[in-house]
Amino acid sequence: MPKKVFVAPGHGLKPDPKHPGKTIFDPGAVGHAGGKTFEEHDFNTKVANALAAALRRCGVVVVLEDGGGNHDPNFKGSIKAANASGADYAVEVHHNAAGGTGSEVVVNDRASAANKQLAKTMAAAMAGALGIRNRGVKARDRESFNIETTMPASIPECAFVDSAIDQAVLDQPGYAATVAEAICESLCGFLGVAFNPPPAAPGVRKEELSMADVNDILAKLELLRVGEKRDPAKADPHDFASLEGVARKVDDARGDITWLKAAVKAIAQKTGATLPPGG
Ligand SMILES: [Zn+2]
């Protein structure tokens, strides 16, 4: 019998506390940068759809909740739908906010060792595919989706909608497919299903990493550091705390620095720093 996975995009319609029986739209976390709005629900939906497509390609039966319109307008809609689906696994896709950068996976504190291991694998796969920080597993007893679903479940928090570093990655055209493939491959491993890779590599374009590129980026990061000292009012402390990680990431880069160039640009834009031309 084929394996079945329930996939839901986090947030969407929820009951309106002021008007019983009516619903309101909950976008989840919202970030802003360079005149753009990064709405969590929008990314949750794109990743959930891409994940459903990837899982189906691997022969997995998917029950996909439509968070845009046909969402059960009940606070526990996703849990009810998951439990009614008879799935072997349930995932609710979210994106993070408020003080951080990177990918993490939230599971219930009392989840099985196998599910916790899956969460660990999934977080590393997402962070690796996106080229952002791996924040690992967050095991806690708080999210009702993880507590009340009757099958093993997890909540991938793919990236931060309000981090300049992550926004550069979220802005890539292949973002949703890239992170969805990482989630899909981890899930296939957990379910004992062979991962059938997509025909063409999705997502962030790979490019040759040259020492000149690395030196260029390090020089720009140094410039941003100097700029921060000159005008601390312009700096976002949270972005600059991440600079250490970005610099480390340059050393770790193995042939994909498109996201890194974009991140440097995004931080420069946010802090008002002027970058030398090139890249
Ligand atoms: Zn959320």
Shape estimate:
globular
* Main sheet makeup: 6 strands, mixed
Uncertain spans: 202-206
SS field, number of helical segments: 9
Whole-Å distance between the termini? 51 Å
Q: What's the level 1 CATH class of the largest domain?
A: Alpha Beta
CATH topology of the largest domain: Aminopeptidase
Helix-strand pattern: EEEEEHEHEEHEHEHHHHH
Provide the CATH superfamily of the largest domain: Zn-dependent exopeptidases
Bound molecules: zinc ion
Q: Architecture of the largest domain, according to CATH?
A: 3-Layer(aba) Sandwich
Radius of gyration: 20 Å
Strand content: 15-25%
> Which structural class matches the secondary elements?
alpha/beta
How many domains make up the coordinates? Answer: 2
Percent helix range: 40-55%
Number of strands: 10
Overall mean confidence score, pLDDT: 83
Strands of the widest sheet, in order across it, are 6-1-7-10-8-9
Can you describe this structure?
The chain is an alpha/beta fold and 279 residues long. The chain has 2 domains: 4-191, Zn-dependent exopeptidases (Aminopeptidase); 211-271. The protein contains 9 helices and 10 strands. The strands form 3 sheets. A 6-stranded mixed beta sheet has the order 6-1-7-10-8-9, with helices on both faces. It is globular, with a radius of gyration of 20 Å. It starts with a strand and ends in an 8-residue tail after the last helix. Bound molecules: zinc ion (ZN).
